[in-house]
Amino acid sequence: MAAAAVANIGLMDSAYFVGRGEILSWINATLQLSLAKVEEAASGAVQCQLLDMVHPGVVPMHKVNFDAKTEYDMIQNYKVIQHVFNKLRINKNIEVNRLVKGRPLDNLEFLQWLKRYCDAVNGRIMNENYNPAERRSKGCKERNHKGSNKSSKSLQANRLSSANSADGAPTTEKVCISTVMEDHYMEQIQQLSEKASSE
Questions:
Q1: Mapping DSSP to helix (H, G, I), strand (E, B) and coil, where does residue 110 land?
Q2: Could you say which of 14, 33, 122, 165 is the most buried, measured as most Cβ atoms within 10 Å of its Cβ?
Q3: Are 108 and 38 in contact (CB under 8 A)?
C-alpha cells in the first residue's frame, strides 16, 4: 500500500486491529523508550519523532517539546505534526482535542494509523542509521539555540535515566536540562562580550 493511500484507510483495516502491546513494543524498540501505556504518547512528541525517523530532516525537532504536560504545550507538538503532514501532502485529520485528553482509545487509534504509515513508507524496515536518543537531545539543544529559555527535561531523560544497561549497571544518560542551561549561559556571555567590544 502506498504511503499516500494510508491516510485514507478505514476503521476496518487490519491496521486498527494491532493491539496495544504490539504498538508499545514497536514504539519502545524503535525510539528506545519504555512507555507502559499508549496514553503516555498523548503529548505528540512520540509521533513527531516517529515521523522524523521515516522522513529525516522534515520534522523541525527543535520545536518538539518532549516534556509537554499541559494541553497548550501538547497542541504545539500536534501543530508540528500537522505542518509535517501538510508538507508531505498527507491528508489525515488529527483529532487534537481528543488526543491531548490522553484517552487510551483515541491515542491507540492514531498510533495504529501511524504504525501503518511508517510501515508503508519504510517497507517495515527500521532505519538503522537513526539514533532516537541523539535526535531527542539535538531537538532540545536546537530549541535552546532558537531563543527559548525554558529549561526542559527531554523525554530521553524522563524515560531512560532509570533504565539499566544489559550488564545491570546504571546507564549514564545526558540530561538535556544541563545542556540547555549551559548553552543559555554561553549565549548570554557571548552577547555581553559583543556588547562590550562595540562600546
A1: helix
A2: 33
A3: yes
Secondary structure (3-state) at 166:
coil
- Asked if residues 176 and 137 have their Cβ atoms less than 8 Å apart, the reply is yes
When pLDDT is cut at 50, 70 and 90, the band that residue 32 belongs to is: very high
How many alpha carbons fall within 13 Å on the CB side of residue 197?
6
How many CB atoms within 10 Å of residue 124?
9
Least Cα distance to 4 among 66, 108, 75, 90 occurs for: 90
Amino acid at 191: Q
Length of the chain: 199
Task: State whether residue 170 is helix, strand or coil.
Answer: strand
Cβ within 8 Å of residue 86, ≥6 positions away: none
Please name the amino acid found at residue 22.
E
CB burial of 131-156 (b: ≥16 within 10 Å; e: otherwise) equals ebbebbbbbbbbbbeeebeeebbbbb
The answer to whether 110 touches 94, Cβ cutoff 8 Å, is: yes
**Residue tagged 493511500 (cell numbers):** 5
Closest of 179, 29, 50, 195 to residue 118, by C-alpha: 50
How does 29-47 read in b/e, with b if 16+ C-beta sit within 10 Å?
A: ebbebebeebbbbbbbbbb
d(CA 146, CA 175): 19
Give the pLDDT confidence of 161-179 residue by residue, as tens digits: 334 444 444 443 333 433 4
The grid cell for 49 is: 519523532
